[in-house]
Here is the input.
Amino acid sequence: MIELEGVTKRFGEKVAVDNLTLSVPGGELFAFLGPNGAGKTTTIKMLAGLLKPTSGRIAIAGHNLDGESLEAKRIMSYVPDQPYLYERLSGREFLNLVGDLYGMPREKSNAEIARLCELFEMEEYLDEFAENYSHGMKQRVVLSAALLHEPQVIVIDEPMVGLDPKSARLVKDILLKRVSAGVTVFMSTHTLAVAEELADRIGIINKGKLVALGTLNELKSFGGASAEALEEIFLALTEEEP
Here is the structure.
């Protein structure tokens, strides 16, 4: 569902992503890890169509982002690391706007909004202006917006930031349920425990290059004979000190 072929992104002389080739099939939850400045968010933004690669090709479900971006965006959703809402819209108005942008019939979008409102326990504040929301409230609305049109591909950056433990557990369960139904999830996170718990495969990027790719068991061979936990593997591959 997600294909990156020789993707490079430069900002002037700086190479943020260096010749990245990666394939993520349907029904897989892929965790993308790396230290700060490694190229994770740049990759995420290229997948979402917010940045264009300097060279290389990105395709979503066979749709090339350079030429078929609207077709690709119709079947995907993007959740940034910082939830953004229009402050003078209520959460419900924002979700209705998202439904309209995806061409959902209003009856269907209203029914799905009601379901998501109950699921994320947003009844108390969904009709208030977003300017009054806490970070966690915004995150729930943004996640609801990402799920509203039942996307085939979900690109998500730091999904658990700002969520209480109950909401975080709910998001994990939702993502796993979507994956079991054939949805592709591309998740960037700094929380290694989340990647260890949820991911089918893990990719580690460092200084713009993909330095490891595989299941957790496969990654243990990269980290050395003594590496058992993902933290040990990650630190060994990125040359970070604990």
